[in-house]
Specification:
The complex is a heterotrimer of chains A (411), B (55) and C (269). Chain A has one domain (4-406): Up-down Bundle (Formate dehydrogenase/DMSO reductase fold), CATH 1.20.1630.10. Chain A starts with 15 loop residues before the first helix and ends with a helix. Chain A has helices at 16-42, 58-69, 72-82, 89-113, 122-125, 132-156, 165-176, 178-201, 219-247, 254-289, 294-297, 306-324, 326-330, 332-359, 375-398, 405-408, and strands spanning 213-214, 217-218. Chain A has 16 helices and two strands. Chain B has one helix and no strands. Chain B has one helix at 12-45. The radius of gyration of chain B is 19 Å and the shape is rod-shaped. In chain C, the strands form four sheets. Chain C has a four-stranded mixed beta sheet. Chain C has a two-stranded antiparallel ribbon with strand order 2-3. Classes of the chains: A mainly alpha (411), B mainly alpha (55), C alpha+beta (269). The interface between A and C is large, with 53 and 64 residues.
Chain lengths: 411, 55, 269
Amino acid sequence: MDDSKFWPQGVTRCKPGAFIAWMLVCLGLGGWAMLSAFLCIYKGLNQTNMNDFFAFGVWIVVDLAIIALGAGAFFTGFMTYVLRRDELKNIINAAVIIGFICYSGAILMLGIDIGQPARGWFGFWHANVHSMLTEVMFCITTYLIVLIVEFVPLVLENRQISKVPDLSFFAHNLHRIMIVFAATGTFLSFFHQGSLGGMYGVLYARPFAYRTGIVIWPWTFFLFILSAIASGPSFTTLIVMLTEKVSGRKLTSHKVKMMMGKVSAYLLSFYLVLKIADTLYWANVTLPKMGVTFGELYGGGPYGTYLVWMELGLFGVLPALLLLQRRVRESYGLLALAMVLNCCGAVMNRFVMTIQPLAIPVLPFEKFVGYLPSWQEWGISAGVIAYGLIIFSLAYRYLPIFPQEVELNKG
Amino acid sequence: MLPICFEWHWDVGHFVFMGLFYTALTIIGAGVVYTFMATMKDLCSGKDPHEHGHH
Amino acid sequence: MSLADRYSAGEHRFGMVIDVDKCTGCGACTVACMSENNVGVLFDETDKLRSITWMRVYQIDNGRPFPETQVAFFPRPCLHCEGSHGQHTPCVSVCPATATDYDEHTGIVSQIPTRCIGCRYCVGACPYHARYFNWFDTPWPSGLERPLNPAVAPRMRGVVEKCTFCYHRFQRAKNKAFLSGGKVEEMDYQTACTEACPSGAITFGDLRNPNHKVAQLAASPEAFRLLERLGTNNKVYYRTSREWVRRKADNYLQDEKTGQVAASQGGGH
């Protein structure tokens, strides 16, 4: 079996046998997810370990995390098409595909997470415009449409598909007005990244999550936007680096990666300044007004103060300091390490904001309740990752997403 | 989503929220429609589909 | 602030006063509520994190060793918060599908199970754990459909439900008042838990009507609400003369005096 005529012009890919074996591994994970999804839909959400205390579980953490990491798509799109940073054209395609994977994966997951999946459209039809979650639903879906529009021309550029004149013209014309879609996507994405943070900040009866803010937006609204655009470019670059390591081929020049690292560095530093200020204000002003102390909230069960040091120190200040230095960005390994830490910080922030507010009781006579996900919950989470691996592997194999690849691998 | 739903109110919240939503949808829709029309035009004009090269 | 000024304009503001010093923790209110509102019995009711009890009785103690140990009970229905302004309860403001609503006329927080998509955002938003998600299909073994209350629809799996202050009883009372040409009287509309309480610890009525007993009790200096300082501005009051019980009803910093801090938040959004 030879599929080389479908590969992008002038590049080589691994043998079909190896690719099929890899796909089978991913499909195996996918099978676990399908079984879990079937059980959750057929038997109900009692298949999870969530309960009335842990109304949100690992799915929401994964959802929020992948949406934050997927922010590389809109922010790279914004820098490429709106700010006209032409170097980033070498990585924008990968960013779009990762964004597409993250957003569609999140929506698939939410479809299982809600108790009545068949009623998912009620959130649109009977929208409560005052709810942050409504804004999230509207923006994520609309932005997914944008991502599909951005993804379509990449698919149409496949060597065989582009031979069809209709499709080739269509892809070309879509490309020409990409700035319109990129700008719309930026607007939508900004709002729902914020609304995801707002979802927690508005919970005024949950001291752990509640934040003051301006007008209708709690501070978490702005912090979530910033942490998403700080970690998104890092995640995109990391996936490209991972693909380079797995395939043994150079895909983008190191200059492009350094630029993404620099963007992450400045945004992460800005985010951290605000996040630390927010944490201090919350701990010293907001919480005491509610009769709660910071020590009480970070002293329950396994959720100790070490989480703060990890989130803001190890996964915050450290990667920011690393990425700010040119020497670090010049080194392939150190750049990757700093970016991994940066992404861990975003994931950790989403974990802390989702699980911990629910774990800590608000009524003084309630008890702390623990939660560990069931295998079905892990299955669906693994399934989203498998889904991403499959889409990205197929895209890498058959679509010309890295304009520099041919040149970088000459000789 | 539509004024026919009973929870719809003609208030600021709905104007801003739904206004922005339908604006975004209109922009995306117009972009896609424009692309279709431009493609039809290109096809009828008999241009060579590969002259614009790679992106 | 006087009782009437605490809530937004509206004909009624139904509420409750529960006398903690009278409550014996017998659980009759819980049973009456389940029976009145068609809350089913699950196969495993020992998992209290997943079973449904609209009216839950919390047991608290003063934390002292015997013989100084004292015990008290907080029966907890849905507290029907109002927040800083009308619709701003912790739960109503967050529901994406408008499946829960704040009734401007009665002040009752309703739940529309047939519209709920089961996202559980409201469950996370409620600090009182008054909202319950249907994790299971409720088994209704043959014969058990006969004692179902025809005025209340049983709920399906995958939706959130909660105490409605027996809203169907209010509808019934309104019908009666319409037919007789009068008004809804205090005793025409009483919740099932109120009626069932053997020690008379629960008083229910219209907080806005000064002639109702509940309005008089709620105005007493010994009346307080759970987590008052979060600004949920709810309509279920408790009463006790014991300081330690009252201290357990809210979060306090070490140097703060019980019951002397005002609601500081009120949900500014």
